[in-house]
Amino acid sequence: MVVLWMLPSTSIYDFKVPSLDGNTIDLAKYKGKNILIVNTASQCGYTKQYAELEQLYEKYKGNLVIVGFPANNFGQQEPGTNAEIKGFCLTKYSVSFPLFSKISVKGSDKHPLYQYLEREKRGFLGTKNIKWNFTKFLVGRDGQVLGRFAPTSTPEQLDGVIAKVL
């Protein structure tokens, strides 16, 4: 029996993730840019943050990529299919930043990207697990996680932090 031991991921550029359209996207395509990673949901009290995220994306386009990962882990607030999520985000909020396939950000089926993000940056009072929709991670140009922000931290409030790292 051969046992393979894999080194832990060293940056977000080690991950490949499925897009809403079913294509596999290598996050290495974002090398050299700052990235704001957000777990999203269409039926959450924080869903209106889509509009602020889009404004931030337009403001810093070219220097900042915002990527959304729909997740149905909290209160079943993202029950739709990938096609329904895409339609909702385009119609209701004119989202143009990249959205990826619905994944799990909590539990035994947690996506490896979120395992990595939690390992790299703890939350308030050192908590590891994602607590709710619209938790945000700011990643530097080198693929390293610079910060983690609670769902209550609006994109507008993060503008100053983002401006400093650009």
Topology at a glance:
Elements: E1 16-18, E2 24-26, E3 34-40, H1 49-60, E4 64-70, H2 82-93, H3 112-120, E5 136-139, E6 145-149, H4 155-165
Parallel strand pairs: 3-4
Antiparallel strand pairs: 1-2, 3-5, 5-6
Question: Given the C-alpha coordinates, what overall shape results?
Answer: globular
Query: What is the assigned CATH homologous superfamily?
Result: Glutaredoxin
Radius of gyration: 15 Å
Q: Which CATH architecture? A: 3-Layer(aba) Sandwich
Instruction: Report the uncertain regions.
Output: 3-7
Strand order of the largest sheet: 4-3-5-6
Instruction: Work out the helicity level.
Output: 25-40%
Task: Write the H/E string, N to C.
Answer: EEEHEHHEEH
What do the pLDDT scores average to?
A: 92
What fold name stands as the CATH topology?
Answer: Glutaredoxin
- How many strands? 6
Q: Please state the oligomeric state of the protein chains shown.
A: single chain
Number of domains: 1
Alpha-carbon distance between the termini? Answer: 49 Å
Strand content: 15-25%
What is the number of helices?
A: 4
Biggest sheet statistics: 4 strands, mixed
CATH level-1 class: Alpha Beta
Helix vs. strand class: alpha+beta
Your description of this structure?
This protein has 166 residues and is an alpha+beta fold. The protein has a single domain (12-165), classed as 3-Layer(aba) Sandwich (Glutaredoxin), CATH 3.40.30. Helices cover 27% and strands 17% of the residues. The protein contains 4 helices and 6 strands, in the order βββαβααββα. The chain has helices at residues 49-60, 82-93, 112-120, 155-165; strands at 16-18, 24-26, 34-40, 64-70, 136-139, 145-149. The strands form 2 sheets. A 4-stranded mixed beta sheet has the order 4-3-5-6, covered by helices on one side. It has a two-stranded antiparallel ribbon with strand order 1-2. β5 and β6 (145-149) form a beta hairpin. It is globular and about 35 Å long. Residues 3-7 have low confidence and may be disordered.
